Amino acid sequence: NVTVGGSGWSEFAEFIESGKMRPIGVTSQKRLPGINVPTMKEQGFDVVLGNWRGVYGGPGITAEQRAALTDAVLRATKTRAWTDALKKNGWTPAVLSGKEFDDFVEYEFSSLRAIMYLSGMV
Known about the structure:
With about 120 residues, the chain is mainly alpha-helical. The protein has 4 helices and no strands.
């Protein structure tokens, strides 16, 4: 028995659709397309958290390897399979690479650390 859970929409979708779970809010900046669930901000909670994914190379990866990996990922985001995955999982596309992605990850990690500390999770 679970009282409350937090995850990406796609991880809970089957439980919500079957009636085993009830969504009470999304932590995104805006409502998710096609999903009639209010944001936490709409409900008076100043919370915006995204559920994102990233592709990383191992320690010592060369600039050439990083460029090849980045190129492969960017090409993949232009495919029909990627578009279908976005729709199926209710994902919002937000493709970043290079320094822009590095800066985003640093900001997200520092924000999450602060949130976890302030909420008493750590």
